[in-house]
Write a structure and sequence with these properties.
single chain; alpha+beta; 4 domains; five-stranded antiparallel β-sheet; 12 strands; disordered N terminus
Length: 683
């Protein structure tokens, strides 16, 4: 038996404290001694070098045993002989010893890592304490710097030198026995002397001011003598005004406007010239005027002067020295940049369009200098009081009056593509937020000013006076037509809200003399309310209901029948006719999708609208459509079959003359009215 095997067999187990302990069990009687062995205790008592030497010895012994076993096998020793088994047993013991050394190495490595981690934590704690101390030192240094840099208000006052102070100041103010040894008292005394000097200067200023007033009075007397000639000159000018008006040649007014027009920005100047030319040639009811601050416009157009720059720089430096330097906040800087970017030119252009009914459309054009676009605001003046109908509240408002004058031009976003990049710099999300204050940048407004922003590279890059002249006449006609159509709608809505459908004498032949159905209600609704209606979904899906349109709900009643009509009114009415969607509440709920006859009624109102236009330009189209709707409801109800099991008179007796009550597999009713015969037929 080898020495290693003997050491393994004779090894005494040790307890965790390094010495064997005898423990007694908790049961009855004495228990045998139990010796506890701990590898950690052994790890504390051994060195890594010893383990390494033991590892080398074990490896050498193991290699020797392996070679001996191989030699025995080579010599023909039988398997399981005593000598071979002993060597195998010794090899196993050596393998167990190697595993133990491996565990000890891993335990020693883990202990080293734990110690390193604890040391790093201590270092981190000390580093954090150091950072806190450095931060406190930095804070104290800043406070010390603030205290050292503190300046009192009196330091800004330029006091007289000390030598001059002691020479000129009286003894009761200078107090040399006290101030020469105390700088604080010296400063107070110098401030008192400064106050005394300023009081004397104030009295001297009053004396000089009185002298100035006397001189000024003498100057005013001389001015009055010179200005006494002005009334005579004005009288001569006033005497010539009737001659100018009679000859339709207001030379004085034209001369003043021409003088001011030189200071207009180029787009407003183009509009001024073209509008004047169009008014003189084609439209005597068009007036053009210029308003604004002419002096400020002159200052903008005047080239910068070097002397003025020097004076302004010196003033800025003085102002900077007199006031504390304060760093503006980021929000304040952005607000200033936004205001500067959205700044308007001090001069604006006003165009007054007079209509046949003496109503006037006032157009106020502005130019945004930094964005290079024009905007417009509107105002309407009428000769008579326009009835304030609730449903007509938005018709004459500045925000909606000129919306979509041309198709798709709602005037909410700037047409200049370069403005998008300018807005990103100052944090402007959408120009629509500033439309109420600045006006609407319609595309036709840019065209009248000679500005052109092509959306497609294939568009011709035409601009200036030729572009303005090409659109002037058509735009002015559209503006007059828009005002007249809105005034007509306002009057119609006032009647519709009182359940009265106004029909002009020129349109009486379109309807029978007796209409039993009546308009019960006419109210405005929102775009969201319109989309939520189940019988208008197909209109919204087809893209025929836009946010720029106006929406109304009309209710036509006869007896127990109730017909709901959701109406889409385009801003371009009557060029774009109103669109009706119907729902009938009578013996259930019926719509155009479920009832062929109700769909035929929608066709009578929407498709065959040309029959209801009336005299040009067709401002009565809406009320004629509503009257046709009432007539079609009468025909629908009177031609409906009655249940034979119900006794009593018919709810809707037949009062309309029809050639045939129904036709075809869809059982369509006759909704076409034939004048002057007075009967209804199928289409």
């Amino acid at each position: 038996m080898s020495d290693a095997l003997k050491k393994r067999k004779t090894k005494v187990l040790r307890s965790e404290g390094g010495t064997p302990e005898t423990k007694r069990g908790r049961g009855e009687g004495d228990q045998p001694d139990v010796r506890v062995y701990s590898e950690e205790v052994e790890l504390d008592g051994k060195d890594a070098e010893q383990d390494y030497q033991q590892f080398k010895e074990s490896c050498d012994s193991l290699a020797t045993l392996m070679s001996e076993i191989q030699e025995l096998k080579a010599n023909g020793a039988k398997e399981g002989c005593v000598e071979m088994e002993q060597k195998r047993m010794q090899s196993c013991i050596l393998f167990m010893n190697l595993k133990k050394l491996n565990r000890l190495a891993h335990m020693r490595l883990k202990r080293g890592r734990d110690q390193t981690h604890e040391a790093k934590q201590r270092v981190d704690v000390l580093h954090l304490q150091l950072q806190n101390l450095l931060y406190e030192v930095l804070h104290l240094q800043k406070e010390i710097s603030k205290c050292l840099e503190f300046k009192s208000k009196h330091e800004e006052i330029d006091l007289v030198p000390e030598d001059e102070f002691y020479q000129e100041a009286p003894q009761d103010i200078s107090k040399p026995q006290l101030t020469k040894n105390d700088t604080h008292q010296l400063t107070l005394a110098r401030l008192d002397w400064e106050l005394e000097q300023r009081k004397r200067l104030a009295e001297k200023y009053k004396e000089l001011q009185a002298t100035k007033e006397k001189i000024q009075k003498s100057i005013e007397v001389k001015k009055e003598h010179l200005t006494s000639l002005q009334p005579g000159l004005n009288a001569i000018m006033q005497a010539s005004l009737p001659v100018q008006q009679y000859l339709a040649m207001p030379f004085e007014q034209i001369q003043k406007q021409t003088e001011v027009a030189r200071h207009l920005p180029p787009p407003l100047y183009v509009l001024f010239v073209q509008a004047n030319a169009y008014g003189q040639a084609c439209d005597k009811n068009l007036d053009v005027s210029i308003s604004g601050d002419v002096d400020e416009a002159k200052a903008l157009s005047k080239p910068p002067d070097d002397s003025q720059d020097d004076d302004s720089d010196s003033d800025a430096e003085e102002e900077q020295e007199k006031t504390k330097r304060r760093r503006p906040t980021t929000g304040g800087q952005l607000d200033d940049k936004r205001r500067e970017m959205l700044k308007r030119h001090p001069l604006s252009l006003a165009i007054d369009l007079k209509c046949k009914d003496d109503s006037i459309l006032h157009l106020f054009f502005y130019y945004l200098m930094n964005l290079n676009i024009m905007t417009v605001k509107t105002k309407v003046s009428t000769s008579t009081d326009v009835s304030t109908a609730i449903s007509a509240g938005d018709l004459l408002k500045s925000d909606t009056l000129l919306s979509c004058l041309y198709s798709g031009d709602n005037g909410q976003e700037t047409p200049n593509p370069a403005n998008r990049y300018q807005f990103d710099k100052v944090g402007i999300v959408s120009f629509a937020d500033y439309v109420e204050e600045l006006g609407h940048p319609y595309i036709w407004v840019q065209t009248l000013g000679g500005l052109h922003f092509p959306n497609d590279s294939s568009e011709p890059a035409r601009g200036g006076s030729s572009l303005s002249a090409s659109q002037m006449e058509s735009t002015m006609k559209l503006l007059r037509g828009r005002l007249l159509s809105r005034q007509a709608l306002t009057k119609q809505f006032a009647s519709l809200e009182h359940s009265i459908i106004p029909v002009t004498s020129e349109c009486q032949h379109l309807f029978p003399a007796k209409i039993m159905s009546r308009l019960a209600r006419w109210t405005p609704i929102t775009h969201e309310d319109y989309k939520d209606l189940p019988y208008t979904r197909y209109v919204s899906d087809a893209g025929l209901a836009k946010e720029t349109d106006m929406y109304f709900m009309g209710v036509v009643e006869r007896g127990t029948a109730r017909l709901n009509a959701a109406v889409v009114l385009s801003p371009r009415y009557p060029e774009v006719s109103p669109l009706f969607s119907l729902s009938l509440s009578w013996k259930g709920e019926r719509t155009g999708q479920t009832d062929d006859n109700l769909r035929a009624v929608e066709s009578e109102v929407n498709v065959f609208k040309n029959e209801l236009q009336g005299p040009r330009p067709g401002y009565q189209l809406l009320t004629n459509q509503i009257s046709r709707l009432c007539v079609c409801l009468d025909v629908y109800l009177e031609t409906e079959g009655q249940d034979d099991g119900v006794e009593g008179p018919r709810e809707f007796p037949r009062e309309k003359m029809c050639l045939r009550t129904v036709r075809g597999p869809n059982r369509l009713k006759p909704f076409k009215y034939n004048h002057p015969q007075g009967f209804f037929s199928h289409r």
